[in-house]
Design a protein that fits this description.
5 helices; 74 residues; 59% helix; mainly alpha; 434 Repressor (Amino-terminal Domain)
Length: 74
Amino acid sequence: MGKNLRTLRLEAGLSQEKLCAELQRRGCDIGRTTYEKYETGELNIRISGLIELKKIYRCSYDAFFDGLDTASEG
């Protein structure tokens, strides 16, 4: 999921700092170092974070999970 989070952020033209500032403005307390761990796959993001990101990116939830189910196919 981290790759998808990074791709969506870059497509929106946002730095991690600007994205986290917007999330915090919306009441979602995620700092840049924590968000970086979401993008690298070190931490899993909470659903509350995904809900706000969906609003910011104006995307479907599928965009967050794109390609993840193919990893188990073999």
